[in-house]
Structure formats: C-alpha cells, structure tokens
Amino acid sequence: MIKVYTDAATNAQQKKSGGGILIVNDNQQTQLSFPLEEEDNHSAELAAIMYALRYLLENQLENQNVLLYSDSKTAIKILDQGQTKNNRFSPYLTEFNEISEKFTLLVLQWIPESKNKGADHLARQGLQKSLKL
C-alpha cells in the first residue's frame, strides 16, 4: 500500500502557490515540492492532488492500493462527491474522474493539518520556488 500526503501553500497577496507531496511506499519516502500556477488555496490543493496522481501513473504505481491524504476538506469533498458548483474546480474534477479509473484502489481521506506536516513543509518549499519565478 502506498500512502500519499499532499498539501499546498498560497501567498494570497502575490497570488503564488506551491505544492508538496510525500509518498511513503515500502518504508521508502519520495518528497516532491514544486511551484503551482494556481492563485487560490483551494485550486492549489486540488492541483497538488492531481500532480500526485499523475506522478503515480508516470511511475507505474497505479496497480497498488493508494491512500491519498489531504488536509483540505474542500478538495476531498469535491473529489469524493464527484461534483462542484464552482466552475474553477470543474477541470480538476474532470481530470480526477479520468485518472482515478486507472487505479486498482484509490482512497481519499481528509486528515488534520497536524498529521500532514511533511507535505506542508514541502508545499512551503514549493511556494518559495514559485515566489522566485
């Protein structure tokens, strides 16, 4: 089973965001931090989740059971329920619906910020990268 922790950090004044992903697989960790184009936190959280899923596919890990954790209740709710009234989030939901079918088992779960410190730290690094662009 693969555990994936995702998070995003946003600087609202500068409209910059960064994402962070911590992947735990067979007691090995992969840490990713990256700038995001999204200007608001909810979109950035969704983008970080999609980045994680694309990474898993690119590394041919879709045949394993995946537990994906995020501290964004909004992002998890949108993807779990498969609907959103906000047009900004629709592209993420559409992509999620296409990608999620490729996984043997994909479970999304909200966790409190206190349990997501690794991904939070990486997201802040991603934000710093974004601010330098």
UniProtKB/TrEMBL annotation:
InterPro entries: RNase_H-like (IPR053151), RNaseH-like_sf (IPR012337), RNaseH_domain (IPR002156), RNaseH_sf (IPR036397). PROSITE patterns: RNASE_H_1. Residues 1-128 form the RNase H type-1 domain. It holds the Pfam family RVT_3. This is Ribonuclease HI family protein. It comes from Candidatus Enterococcus moelleringii.
